[in-house]
Design a protein that fits this description.
2 domains, alpha/beta, Rossmann fold, globular, 235 residues
């Protein structure tokens, strides 16, 4: 009995210590978001802050982020997703399709930042959509819908398509051009904004006269972003 009590006590202490560590880590990482987005509402701050525990817990059940990378959630995933907001400020009522969202990137961070924009997140892997649904529901996002389907099956029209390195640029444009509306409501003409890494000159070559290439390092100073790019192609 004494031995069992000691084991339970050790587990409890470990649990409290672990939660305290997560909270401290969470607060430190939230500083990265606030450094670049200082004008968030209290609701947005609480929604961003909640992501760490939610993804930490869900990722232990369903792997949507490399388990070695979960500690870098805010920098490598949340902040990276928000680079799209450095390119365009979506107007209220804008419809955005996130292709190959995985566990909800870039769609969930963008939906927090733009509460008056409507987001549809799609992925061909159902368990990843489950994680995205659970996370978005837990933080009370009501401007987002997640769907388990391939992009070829999506029939609706959107103002913008966003994606994070899901496939080669030309292939993605071929698949989503049917989904881009001809009605304009934003400062940029409707089209695709894609987050990518590495050398992109070859991919962009067919669209060199219309595509815009951005260095994410121009937006964020962390070393991780030195090789990260964003591409905008009007469609």
């Amino acid at each position: 009995m004494k031995f069992q009590f000691e084991i339970k006590q050790i587990n409890y202490i470990y649990s409290v210590s672990s939660k305290k560590h997560i909270t401290l880590r969470q607060n430190k990482l939230m500083e990265q978001i606030l450094k670049y987005f200082p004008h968030l509402s209290e609701l947005q701050k609480s929604q961003f802050a909640a992501l760490y525990n939610l993804y930490f817990d869900w990722n232990a059940k369903i792997n949507v982020i490399s388990r070695k990378d979960i500690e870098n959630l805010y920098e490598h995933h949340v902040l990276h997703s928000l680079a799209i907001a450095e390119i365009i400020h979506f107007q209220p009522g804008t419809k955005v399709l996130d292709v190959g969202t995985g566990g909800g990137f870039p769609g969930i961070p963008l939906a927090i930042l733009f509460p008056e924009t409507n987001f549809v997140l799609i992925d061909s892997i159902g368990k990843k959509i489950k994680v995205g649904n659970e996370v978005s529901s837990a933080i009370g996002l009501n401007n987002i819908k997640l769907k388990h389907l391939r992009v070829q099956e999506e029939k609706d029209k959107f103002d913008f398509v966003v994606s994070r390195a899901v496939m080669p640029l030309g292939d993605l444009i071929t698949l989503v051009k049917k989904n881009v509306s001809s009605k304009q409501k934003n400062a940029l003409p409707n089209g695709l904004i894609c987050l990518k890494g590495g050398e992109l000159q070859h991919e962009i070559q067919p669209y060199k006269n219309i595509a815009e290439l951005y260095n994410v390092s121009d937006f964020y100073h962390e070393e991780y972003f030195q090789t990260k790019k964003a591409v905008y192609v009007p469609i």
